[in-house]
Specification:
single chain, 103 residues, mainly alpha, two-stranded antiparallel sheet, 2 strands, 10% strand
Amino acid sequence: MADRRRLERFIRSKVREAGTQYESVRRSADGQLEEAREAYRMARNAKTIPTDEADRAKIVCRRFAEKRAAKLDEEYRPACYEADHPDCEGCVEDIYDGRIETW
């Protein structure tokens, strides 16, 4: 009888471990899928921005309120982007969301 209880406890603990591992992998996969969707959305929106003959994005700069043709880097930020500047951050968010003002 004691061996049977020990076996049941062992099996329960292993099933619990497997369930915990499964949940961890599922959460990780869900997170990676959401990151991939977000990256795809950002890239799709950035690719719809009109460009000039030199393949520079034709945007209206929020910081200086002027028309500007700027290359976008691998994170779809214009070459004129300045980190931590509120107008530049807003511009990049608009690019990601597909609502940047263009010309």
